[in-house]
Amino acid sequence: MTQTAEKTDLAQIGVVGLAVMGSNLARNFARNGNTVAVYNRSPEKTRALISEHGDEGAFIPSETVEDFVASLERPRKAIIMVQAGAATDAVINQLTEAMDEGDIIIDGGNALFTDTIRREKEVAAKGRHFVGAGISGGEEGALNGPSIMPGGPAESWETLGPILESIAAEVDGTPCVTHIGPDGAGHFVKMVHNGIEYADMQVIGEAYQLLRYGVGMEPAEIAEVFREWNAGDLDSYLIEITAEVLAQKDPETGAPLVDVIVDAAGQKGTGRWTAISGLELGVPITGIAESVFARALSSATAQRAAAQEGQLPSGTIAELNVDKAEFVEDVRRALYAAKLIAYSQGFDEIKAGSEEFGWNVDPRDLATIWRGGCIIRAKFLDRIREAYDNNADLPALILDPYFKGELENLIDPWRRVVVAATQLGLPVPVFASSLSYYDSLRAERLPAALIQGQRDFFGAHTFKRVDREGTFHIEWSGDRSLTEM
Ligand code: NBP
């Protein structure tokens, strides 16, 4: 029986855009006792939602924006789930026109945070509230409980909070949603979440590559290894699904599915945005950036084909003389270390963004709401929350005493794995660059001193001295005397 609400009832929340994400989110709201107004540009999708799922709760379908807005309780709250970019702007304009002062427009798509900052200003100028909310967890999360990262004014959170809590994932009785900070904070944090996701997937891929081509294990055997890993420190959604994918046979040929999938990774842009934003903020998010590059390289089909035709010398490829079980354990530890670096860098980027834009984002909130509903959900996030509970101003996540202790046990295997991969000629861009990042942080002296000397030589860019304050320059083309600027 369709429980489509009578037009006299008003909806607590509305959803605009009923493709996969929007319709699943609307069903989630309805299943959790909310009356939901639904609208899609093409009415077919609205009708399909009602005919297929109308019995899951109370829906008010509309075929015009005006009817949709009229079906909402005040202050009106409508979540936009349409294609990011121009479509989102078009819908925001329609809703702003049709709504009144104090109503709340929420963009639940994957918007670039700078667009969210701009949109909030435009919408606020017309007296409406605008909330950019990152929603993680894909289709499944939207239906059964996502992790939600809303930005926007604190005032909107007071109205929106309970309704978002009603549909979010829950871990230990805590909903995976909280107010992240003003304007673009929610979308920024969601963007970095996705960047971390890219790195997490890449390090899992590198571990697989080493087990497969370093010690010649078959996908089904590696699936078992990942299942075991999922029972320990690496317990996470991504490790769990990796085991599923590796165990899967191609229904057509019976071959391991991973062997029939073209090895060119796609991307929709949030990882790239995270890397660009890291560069703009001057934060070394090497693990995330290398992961984006690794996807780009995998898709450089023509270049790879040319390089594979014996064009590029491999150098001497060493035999790996190791105990297989010990190597598997080394790879697990290298994966854990590289993952830890990626998270540490991601949290650095969030801290830098928060300072740059004045958001006051609390890292403990993120470690809490990412524990469920989202793609990077992992047991490890409990440890991250504890780390920030103990010291909210940690200079870096890896400097937390617990993680420093973990690194004691990870560092040697991590070095051995990077050496082995290099000798085997196997690419490990994130394992290796994360290790260089780690060693750079530890290094007493960096070659940056030499770079400053070069910059002063060719561009009179000046330098600082280790032994006294001030700014200095050498008269490189003259008598090479020292000048204090
Ligand atoms: P899509 O991103 O595929 O967008 C399709 C929806 O946008 C349809 O409802 C379509 O209406 C509507 N639309 C377009 Br296109 N142009 C429009 C316009 N000018 N005016 C009004 N509506 C317009 O949908 P999705 O995959 O459900 O994703 C929705 C949002 O959620 C996106 O921002 C996406 O980045 C984000 N997201 C997606 C996932 C995921 O796993 N798919 C995960 C997390 C976040 P029509 O039916 O009339 O064409």
UniProtKB/TrEMBL annotation:
GO terms for molecular function: NADP binding; phosphogluconate dehydrogenase (decarboxylating) activity. Pathway: Carbohydrate degradation; pentose phosphate pathway; D-ribulose 5-phosphate from D-glucose 6-phosphate (oxidative stage): step 3/3. Its EC number is 1.1.1.44. The active site is at residues 190, 197. PROSITE patterns: 6PGD (PS00461). Pfam families: 6PGD, NAD_binding_2. NADP(+) binds at residues 17-22, 40-42, 82-84, 110. The keyword Lipid biosynthesis does not apply. One of its GO terms (biological process) is pentose-phosphate shunt. It catalyses: 6-phospho-D-gluconate + NADP(+) = D-ribulose 5-phosphate + CO2 + NADPH. Substrate binds at residues 110, 136-138, 193-194, 198, 268, 295, 455, 461. SMART domains: 6PGD (SM01350). Homodimer. Belongs to the 6-phosphogluconate dehydrogenase family. Catalyzes the oxidative decarboxylation of 6-phosphogluconate to ribulose 5-phosphate and CO(2), with concomitant reduction of NADP to NADPH. This is 6-phosphogluconate dehydrogenase, decarboxylating. It comes from Corynebacterium hiratae. The lineage of its organism: Bacteria, Bacillati, Actinomycetota, Actinomycetes, Mycobacteriales. The gene is gndA.
